[in-house]
Amino acid sequence: MRKKVIITALIVLIIFIAVLTATNSKPTTTTEAPQEYMLNVALLQFNTNGRMQRKLTAKKWSYFHSKQQSYLEQPKLTVYKDNGSIWHLHSDNSTAKQTSIAQKPEYFLLRNNVVMQRMAAINIMPVKFSTSEAYFYPETELLTSSKQVRMEKPGTVISGRGLRSYMNRQYAELLENVKTTYVRDQNKS
């Protein structure tokens, strides 16, 4: 009989502690507010001759000083090269590493539906890269990815894992498991 009382008391105590712990452990959602944020952002950069070099737009840009990062929703970067080529780079969202809001970002980590595309122009062949995640370094105009990448240009589709591409050198390299498919032009007979 005494064993039953002790076991029952222990069970009641365990249930009481479990209920008490469950009610006191409410999830804390402390989301840090950004130091600054902007909506419908458009940043323009010109060269010394007054010619536009870059245009960056975003639906929202939030800067977090404690993390030294900015978060961008729907960032779109357009780069105008001296040779007449125009590059477009966009994704669903991005994180920019920057020491302060007044400093140029060291890099952008682009996520979800990342596309980098060079538009066709006189003597310039169009090319398009698609991936799920990539880093873009504005100072060197380098785009890198360790994810699956698809590269499209007229008559050719190349896929592989990993990418290293320089806008300013018109150079791109898919790093491993590369597969090339030649596509017939539907307009030619």
Written account of the structure:
The chain has 189 residues and is mainly beta. The protein has one domain: Sandwich (lipopolysaccharide transport protein A fold), CATH 2.60.450. It contains 1 helix and 11 strands. A 6-stranded antiparallel β-barrel has the order 2-3-6-7-5-4. The protein is flat and about 95 Å long. About 4% of the residues have low confidence.
List keywords for this structure.
mainly beta; lipopolysaccharide transport protein A fold; 6-stranded antiparallel beta barrel; flat
- CATH topology, what is it called? lipopolysaccharide transport protein A fold
Strand content: over 45%
Estimated helix fraction:
10-25%
Q: Would you identify the CATH H-level superfamily?
A: Lipopolysaccharide (LPS) transport protein A like domain
Annotated CATH architecture: Sandwich
Spatial gap, N to C terminus:
96 Å
| SSE order, one letter for each helix or strand | HEEEEEEEEEEE
Give the overall shape, derived from the CA principal axes: flat
Overall CATH class = Mainly Beta
